[in-house]
Design goal:
Length: 253
């Protein structure tokens, strides 16, 4: 079999050319990195869990009419996605203070925010993904005003959807990061949710105990990352030996 062409290798995923033009295969690796890759480890099974969890969220978003790049899962570690031009922004939505906003503004972690706050960071590892404003985004042409209106509305829809799905299984969605891609259809362009949605890119706390079920377990050495991500998958009813059934989360009391 001919070897596939590698398009890009990131910290947690590798992208290969897909079987049809305009498609890409996303391979989920077991690598975990934090603090701009200063901390690195290989965590067996993480890629499998993130592949399946991301499929679950992307399918669910599709079902409520939020466009995503997801086409189908191919196997335990790979999914087929539409190729798109990634807007160079990390779009962060916060419901509770944690991480960088707590440090920056001196707000205790866990404080509920008066309303969801959307922030933008410029995607550049060498610069440490700095926080930017809409002024920077417009001035440097990273996205148009129309794009920014669409991005804000997509981010808030994703937040409402994810918050509800997690709350139904006893998990608080503290914050998350998404990436947005442009897809061209003839003369038109459309924005879609791209990259992945997984515990690597969310903060997830158990509603009752506050236990962390996300990448902070790795960042802050709080125990087994696989156990935390497996717990999220188990509650959502999508453990790898149990194919995803969007819309059928398991209620916890
Ligand atoms: N996040 C991410 N990738 C990044 C930066 C942040 O997925 O490169 C996620 C992170 O997991 C958290 C949210 O975005 O769920 C907000 O992160 P924050 O700005 O607090 O940064 P951190 O404290 O993780 O450095």
């Amino acid at each position: 079999m001919a070897r596939r062409k590698k398009i890009y290798e990131g910290k947690a995923k590798t992208l290969y050319e897909g079987p049809e033009p305009g498609t890409i295969v996303q391979y989920f690796k077991d690598d975990a990195t934090a603090f701009n890759a200063e901390k690195h480890d290989v965590i067996e099974g993480k890629g499998v869990l993130n592949n399946i969890l991301s499929e679950f969220f992307m399918l669910g978003l599709g079902q409520i009419g939020v466009p995503t790049h997801f086409l189908k899962r191919l196997n335990m570690r790979e999914q087929l996605v539409r190729s798109c031009e990634i807007i160079p922004l990390e779009v962060i939505v916060r419901n509770y203070a944690a991480g960088s906003i707590s440090k920056r503004l001196g707000i205790d972690e866990g404080t509920q925010l008066p309303r969801p706050i959307v922030e933008y960071c410029y995607k550049d590892d060498a610069l440490g993904d700095p926080l930017v404003t809409e002024e920077h985004i417009a001035a440097f042409g990273w996205a148009s005003q129309q794009d920014m209106d669409d991005i804000l509305s997509l981010a808030l829809r994703v937040n409402d959807f994810l918050s509800g799905v997690f709350l139904a299984v006893g998990i608080r969605l503290v914050d998350f990061k998404i990436e947005i891609g442009r897809v061209y259809e003839g003369d038109f362009q459309r924005l879609v949710i791209a990259d992945e949605i997984s515990p690597d890119s969310c903060r997830l706390w158990d509603v009752k105990t506050g236990q962390k079920l996300d990448k902070d377990v790795f960042r802050r050495d709080l125990g087994s990352l696989t156990d935390a991500y497996s717990e999220v998958a188990r509650r959502l009813g999508v453990m790898p030996n149990n194919p995803p059934a969007p819309g059928k989360p398991t209620l916890v009391n």
